């Protein structure tokens, strides 16, 4: 049983139809991770122990257990507590929550990279805490993290096949279904691999360009001193 | 340029340090400092590295908390406040109110790199003093003109020289009209040829009078020009103080003599320093 071009072409349209749902799960999960990651980073850095400790513990737990276990838990265990979600919703929440713990670390490193002098100047000018965060610290801590965020977006995209475990019909499940109908798996799985490559590679290339660009800007700023 | 004005001897102090101590762990950085600064008075702090000069200023700017002792600003406690007739630790609201009378310029400028020059200067006027934007902008422009940077308002800090950055930082602090301004070695990070332009701006500001100044500096000539009083700190204490001529030319304590002699040796070939130290 060798590669059959005609067959391969014939299944391409069906595979392409699974792309939107794969992308949607990735993007929605990513947006959720970005939104959750920031308050999580702030909570972890907080001086209020009752806030920082539990959040740190929960984040550590989520980060150190496999995504697939979390997905199974949300999809198969939560319904016994009366919480029933569709595969897509579960997938987005699972991905988003899991990666928010990584993005929180990214945000944190961005925040920590803001020089102490920026905080001190804000204090000397009598800015409120909120103003210092929103207008001085965050605008300086987010841009340098953009390339790393981009990398996580790609990682999350490549993680979507895990969602097949909770019956979400994304690329991998579609390929498996095609394969099981015709008993030909070679073409379907190869094509899925190629599709992932075609979509990931340009994104990775873009992220790298962005990184170089931001790096150059950073160096220019640094060479003039702050 | 003679910038000194008569300081009212009897006026109540704008800042009063009373028995201020600061320790990091068991390292005593400031040891029972008593210091009164009168309104409009210009004081210069000199002393060896690690003697506590910066810490003294940072305690007043509320960047650091004293271990013991009190600081009063314009007759009001800085780090403490009254609640139900008892003196308790100041909350952020109290600090915010008292801090409004204090300004600071840092050695490393600490401009906001993501804001252009005019926004760096305006930001606190708009968001702390809540001035209308147009008025804040007009006042900021006026201030930038005073420091000679009116044509740079839409540049970003990274596009300026060190001397220009420091002048922006001075404008940014001045525009808030503090009662006392702290300058912590504001020329130490600059290339030698850029020091003059910054000192000139400060002299110019000093000549206008009303605002008190605390100048931490290694520029003895400058201290002598500007200061009403020079204080020599060593080991967390104010060892000697008095008019610049007395401190710089007729030091009494051995430690000050040693400091000035070392200083002279270190900058031995600089005529400025020789003059300042009185050894021409
Ligand atoms: N955050 C800190 N933690 C521990 N020690 C500190 C801290 N800040 C300052 N110190 C110590 O306090 C002492 C006084 O420091 P300070 O910066 O006030 O000295 P200075 O007179 O300004 O010296 P310089 O001329 O070098 O600026 C130093 O020995 C310094 O190491
Ligand atoms: Mg210092």
From TrEMBL, chain A:
Keywords: Amino-acid transport, Cell membrane, Membrane, Transmembrane, Transmembrane helix, Transport. Gene3D superfamilies: MetI-like. Its main location: membrane. InterPro entries: AA_ABC_transptr_permease_3TM, ArtM/GltK/GlnP/TcyL/YhdX-like, Ectoine_EhuD, MetI-like, MetI-like_sf. GO terms for cellular component: ATP-binding cassette (ABC) transporter complex. One of its GO terms (molecular function) is transmembrane transporter activity. Pfam families: BPD_transp_1. GO terms for biological process: amino acid transport. The keyword Cell inner membrane does not apply. It is a multi-pass membrane protein. SUPFAM superfamilies: MetI-like (SSF161098). It comes from the Bacteria. Belongs to the binding-protein-dependent transport system permease family. PANTHER family: L-CYSTINE TRANSPORT SYSTEM PERMEASE PROTEIN TCYL, MEMBRANE COMPONENT OF AMINO ACID ABC TRANSPORTER. This is Ectoine/hydroxyectoine ABC transporter permease subunit EhuD. It comes from Cohnella lubricantis. The gene is ehuD.
